[in-house]
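Cross-check.
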Amino acid sequence: MSRDPSLNSMIYFEAVARNGRISRAAEDLSVSPSAVSQQIKLLEEMLGVSLFRRERRQLSLTLEGEHLYTSVASALGMIRNARQSITRRRESHQLIIRAMPSFAVRWLGPRLADYIQQNPEWDLRVDASPDPSNFEREVIDFDIRYGTSSWEGLHCTPFLQDYVFPMCSPEYYEELRSQYESVEEMLSNARLIDSVNTFIQWDSWLARHQLSRSSMNAALRFDRSSMAIQQAVNNIGVILESTTLAARELLDGRLIPLTPEYPAVRFDAYWIVSPSRHQGQKLVKIFRSWMEQQVGVHDKLITNYLSSRTMDIEDGYQAFQSTLIKR
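Predicted model, tokenized:
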């Protein structure tokens, strides 16, 4: 069985091909010229071809040597780049996190200026992606995930509760109220806008409250909550959405609860997910502490808002256990 050339022999070969002389290659590699000559001899014997033409004191590549050098130089370049990247990552104060796109844009993004101001000496990278990290293959410190803590083999910490209820613009509410007498009629005839990746979909919410969905209005479904929220602000219909993502619109009055008759559904929606080995990292602990402060402020605003609207709260895990969407 033939053996593959060693990485060491490839490094020696690349140095000789690049310098054109054994002595210069030896200087680059901090080894003796005889060690370089020995590696080149072994490599040529293994491959069964001559890699260099020896002309006086200068070496030039043969056709086979040129072909090998092209591949070896490219491969070693990639290895060096990867090593440098890993070294910079290890030596720099850099935190890399991954977050759901709508959460990253609507909740996390507006607050990051405060974190950066408090920690100006540390690098931060936020990867807004719906795909969970593969911590064994990717350099990610932790994920901010939306779900039901069903990620086996990972450390999962809930950090933000969410509240979901029907909401719409004040203008759309007035339009419904002018046509229908009861909240049930309003919901049955409103254009309902779905965010397809939310915990609770309209169909399950309506079924729980024994309401029907009108077939008169076309269905509107969006795979990003940001899009659904914007359409509700645009007076298009009613969304069953998250106070976490729609907080800005609720607090400034661009969206309002359709009715306080039905309770807001509460559940642990957002989780910090990582391998257990990442929990003790300094930057992870600092960022988690900062997020806890931000969540405290957010929670106070939302609970005060719900209280002012006299909305009751029900536990989503009990009320919607059979219909919760996991992602």
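DSSP finds 13 helices and twelve strands in the chain. The mean pLDDT is 87. Passed to J.P. for a second look.
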